[in-house]
Amino acid sequence: MEFPVMLVSLAPFIMVLGIVWVAVNAGTQKRKSTLSTIETAIQAGQALDPETIRALGMPRKDRNGDLKAGLILVAVAAAFVVLGWTIGAVEGDEEARYIMPAVASFPGFIGLVLIGFGLLGSKKDGSE
Question: Are 96 and 88 in contact (CB under 8 A)?
């Protein structure tokens, strides 16, 4: 395979990597500048309350992140199961009724674990 043909076929994957790199790099640079501003303010002797730090751009800790991700993964798993049932009913392919739930088990179990982490984490945070 010639190099231009290979480059064209790899372009979508390279583009996704580039977009992810730009997003992560921009977030990192923003966080570094915010932390340097906070460090300068502390060295100048100013007292910073949590509201001021949040106003400078530091993100708030999302306590429901695990719950949201877990519920999304469980929904994806349910969609795979429904897809398998639908293919089995329309095409008469009985294998799809067994294969798609097996595929759905991966995001489903990961989603259940994330939901458990979210629920256990919220109880722990609420008790303190």
Answer: yes
Residue 59 DSSP code: P
**Measuring CA to CA, which residue among 128, 62, 73 is closest to residue 105?**
73
Q: Domain range holding 54?
A: 1-59
CA atoms within 13 A on the CB side of 127: 6
Is residue 21 classed exposed, middle or buried when 0-12, 13-18 and 19+ CB atoms within 10 A define those classes? Answer: exposed
Domain boundary among 59, 81, 99: 59
Side chain identity, residue 93: D
Q: Please give the model's pTM, rounded to 2 decimal places.
A: 0.54
What tens digit of pLDDT does each residue of 87-127 get?
A: 888 888 888 888 999 999 999 999 999 999 888 876 555 44
